[in-house]
Amino acid sequence: MLLVLLFAALGRASHDEGSLLVGAVVTAAPFLGGMAAGWVLVLLTRRRVPLSVADGIPIWLGSVVLGMLLRLLTGQGTAWSFIAVATLVLGAFLLGWRLLGTLVRRLRRPS
């Protein structure tokens, strides 16, 4: 959740768009809804907390796809450049920490 809020805040700050805190929450809300749907999907289908990269993929895609659909339904922008940036940044944020966690666990395993 914090990384999605960070994504929204960074985007708003880079475009110098009004109130950073309130604006970031409004911008992040559709993506948070999509992320929540992805979590529910993983919890129901895999019956575990989504900590692996593979488990994070539905969360990432839910954030982007449902987030963009919700933005479209609420009259917010969905320009192709924004879709591309959101896909890449949310992918890095939502999958990146899972990948780092996997690497750390592998390095800590006794040989």
What does this structure look like?
This protein is mostly helical and 111 residues long. It contains 4 helices and no strands. It has helices at residues 2-14, 20-46, 53-73, 80-108. It is globular and about 50 Å long. The mean pLDDT is 92.
**What's the overall average pLDDT, rounded?**
92
Radius of gyration from CA coordinates: 15 Å
Strand segment tally:
0
- The secondary structure category is mainly alpha
Low-confidence stretches: none
Order of helices and strands: HHHH
Rounded to the nearest angstrom, the distance between the terminal CA atoms is 35 Å
Query: How is the biggest beta sheet arranged?
Result: none
Shape summary = globular
Helical proportion, percent range: over 70%
Number of alpha- plus pi-helical segments: 4
Q: What portion of residues belong to β-strands? A: under 5%
